[in-house]
# Entry
Amino acid sequence: MTKTGEQHLAVVVLAAGAGTRMKSNKPKVMHEIAGLPLLGHALATASSLGASYVVPVIRHQKDSIAPYIEAFYPNATIAEQDQIPGTGRAVECALEVLPADFKGAVVVTSGDVPMLDVATLEGLIDAHLSNGCVATILTAVLDDPSGYGRIVRTSDGSFLRIIEHRDATKKQLDIREVNAGVYVFDADHLRTALSRIGTHNAQGEKYLTDAAAELIQEGFDVQAIPVTDNWLVAGINDRVQLSEVGAELNRRICEAWQLAGVTILDPSSTWIDVTVQLGQDVTLLPGTYLKGLTTIGEGATVGPEVVLVDCKVGEGASVVKTHASGSSIGAGASVGPYAYLRPGTDLGAEGKIGTFVETKNAKIGAGSKVPHLSYVGDAEIGVESNIGAGTIFANYDGVKKHRSVIGSHVRTGSHNVFVAPIEIADGAYTAAGTVVRKSVAAGDLAMNLAPQRNIAGWVLDKRPGSAAAAAAQAAQASGSSQKASDQDSNN
Ligand code: UD1
Ligand code: MG
# Structure
């Protein structure tokens, strides 16, 4: 874009409306698609223009909106709209927070138009600066223009005015070119025009759209330029539009990753936030949701049916039917199916978190495995250790959480309970069924089971005539139980 324009550019993002059509306790512009609130999308685009001022205008439910802006866009200058309603008044309030001598271009966008991109705005600003117009309006030609303001042109095709749907005549309602709600104005002319317009319309609001007609009446040039891709200017007023625009944005995100070298088997069931990063040759299988600051390394396979929130997946790892948040999965590691990784899980390279395993705040070293039916909470496991099936890390004594530390090359038996705090040193073993209450030194075997006692003939004695007794008798007659009894006598 024209560089001189950047130094004299302010971008106003309108977000003060009531959003009544959402029927929500949450402000309309805070509803999310692709992992960001609608306002977040609008502010991301606004902030990419290199403008001196980015001015979100808020009023309704401002206490639910201002903290988001302050946290993520601390350089934005928030303007508050007063009780006078309408988009024109909103822009007037925005102009009031700019320096009184601000000159240059004022871009106006809406907090409820999330797909508008930087290239379209730059093109609009360029067209504005190069054509000597005092206002440039982005339009769209729609099959169904209902609800939008219509673009009225003269017989030679030049812009005349915008008429809102509610104020339009029957003939004007047939116009399919609509106001996209995206504009570039010259600051001085905008100030003057806004000071001259009233609220004589069906809604009794001060319409920004009337400023354009006012400028035409004063003899200035105003141009209206159609956008080439209507999705870019789709405004969200209700939850039907929220899901439609959300699906289209997701379709485009998937397509961009496919073109960047990611295999996505079924884009319609794969949901990727704008904040996610994917490596080359990642494969995403159906039913995958990648959210927040998730990153996936080259060649990893994720899905089917995986939710990853703020997770890091290493190169070549495999994650199947898993719900994970705030976790890191090492290169070449394997997770799932049916795994639940809670925040603070850190699985090392080539490690395994297997089937029906829940982990939390657990560092599991490289090559270590928790393959089956276990809970690992508040634990540290060294490298190349194996945790037996059905193991519980008992981290909670009813009052406090405690840590367990398992060394490297440890082998723990099936169905163990590790009563934290506890330490099992390098190379130690634990026997199946052990409740480990005392720490185990390096190389020791821990077992705390009472010796097994087999009572000979108990079934025939106590359950005579039962099916079990008959089966036992038959086995004894054929001699097949002899070997087991011989072994037992060694105990
Ligand atoms: C507006 C336009 C319409 C256009 C459509 C495109 C006007 C009068 N109409 O209609 O021509 O086709 O957008 O999407 O401008 N807002 C404020 N303060 C207010 C009222 C609204 O900041 O007092 C904000 C809203 O939060 C929203 C934006 O302005 O982000 C547009 O408001 P909305 O009520 O959605 O206007 P539309 O009826 O869609
Ligand atoms: Mg709207």
Observations:
- The two ends are 86 Å apart (CA to CA).
- The chain has twelve helices and 36 strands.
- The CA atoms of residues 188 and 304 lie 56 Å apart.
- The pocket of uridine-diphosphate-N-acetylglucosamine (ligand 1) is lined by residues 14-17, 57, 81, 85-87, 89-90, 110-112, 148-149, 162, 164, 178-181, 207-209, 235, 237 (CB under 6 Å).
